[in-house]
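chain below, 189 aa
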Amino acid sequence: MSFSSSPAPADLITERLVLRSWTRGEVAAVLGESRSAHWADDFPAEGDRVIAGLFDQHPAWFGAYGHRLIIEREGGLVVGSIGLFWPPSEGVVEIGYGIVPSRRGRGYAPEATEALARFALAAPDVHTLIADVELSNPPSVRVLEKAGFHRWAGEGNVVRFRITRSDHQRGCPRGPRMSPGRGGGVASG
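prediction:
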């Protein structure tokens, strides 16, 4: 793999989570199927392996607006990942996320999704975030609704959700506020 060297982007910190950019070592560990003591027992999930495999093709995903690990602040375990499929196209960028099964049902996915959406919508080149969800996945539908996204299109079994900068400026219906900062040793590769 080839990687450009750039400073690590600031962590996004919510009430219970830290969203931290992947490191090269974490990508290599996921692809090499190594284990880290800082991972939940069921991390990485299949989606995390797919994302790790795409970093070589999308080095911008290591940047501030790329993919991040979802880390519990209490305990420092990596419990999933979330990311923006950067760069935006005409002001629109897609978001994707996943929480490992052992940590689902705790509200982590909406908390992380809202935090990353707020961060992305503050970027000058972004006015809309989108996510496609299969209707056969009602938990993911609820995640997006709780994070302030709205249904706006669909075809067959897939519904497209979006949140716009104007939605964000009016305020999301609920959820934690986040602040950028450094996660100071919450997890390491």
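The beta strands are 11-13, 17-21, 67-72, 78-89, 92-99, 128-134, 150-155, 158-164, 179-181. The helical segments are 24-31, 46-54, 108-121, 138-146, 165-170.
thats it, cya
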